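Subject: Protein record for review, amino acid sequence with backbone structure tokens
Category: Structural biology, sequence-to-fold work with a learned token vocabulary.
Format: Residues in single-letter code; tokens as whole numbers, each standing for a residue.
Body of memo: The sequence and its backbone structure tokens, given next.
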Amino acid sequence: MWEYSDKVREHFFQPRNSGPLEDANGIGDVGSIQCGDALRLMLKVEPETDVILDAHFQTFGCGSAIASSSALTEMVKGKTLDEALTISNQDIADFLDGLPPEKMHCSVMGREALQAAIANYRGEVWSDDHEEGALICKCFAIDAVMIEDVIKANGLNTVEEVTFYTKAGGGCAACHEGIEEILAKVKSDNPGMGETSPPAACPATPEAPKPPTKKLSIVEKIAKIQAVLESVRPMLQRDHGDVELADVQGKKIYVHLKGACSGCMMEAATLGGIQQKMIETLGELVQVLPSSHMPVEA
């Protein structure tokens, strides 16, 4: 399991400034519930001074998303809009005494929500550059421009790190080659950037999913996989869908989507969410794939 700082736990269990903000004059919406994370940041700005008087948030996401959003609202209060725009996703993580690398995308989402809210207040059209950059990760709608910007801002070197910071590549994995090409391009344009790894978000946090203290037997592994599937089934069943385990082949976990989930346009996002839970539970990087992708025996 991932290790969280005391401040992350504090802002998760007792989030600051959660809920609607009356008289908000700057609102930023980023992410989508379908992709697993969504955030609305609301600002109350003094028009004469451009000082942020108050900030609230509403989010659909994990504990790190709630903590990051809560921290951001505290960080921006009392700052001018220009001062607030200097806040980076690493600043949000530092305020929380670090985030697990796998959860850094939550701080990136907070930074984008802040940019969107300030643009909304100023009457500007905020763009996440999806129209300018080629769509790389279809599962989570992440484009080349965003991936390149996050790589540069955080000194990322691997596909795994890009997934931790943007979620790109965390679904079907079909975009890994495209991410590698962007990494190579950024490294070529910025010689020396890849010589050092990005700073650890938290000294006590590992750079990758923490492995189990002992290797799981196949029986233990399947039991944990089944437990994850049982935890998500009620949510799928509410929408007249379901999921069951089809097979486990090494690091590939095949599942059978049933009912409304079968052939659903959000199938990739559903599998991506299940895969994230599997990685956290098993402590290793695995792929969750539909049973239709199972190799055919000769």
The two ends are 39 Å apart (CA to CA).
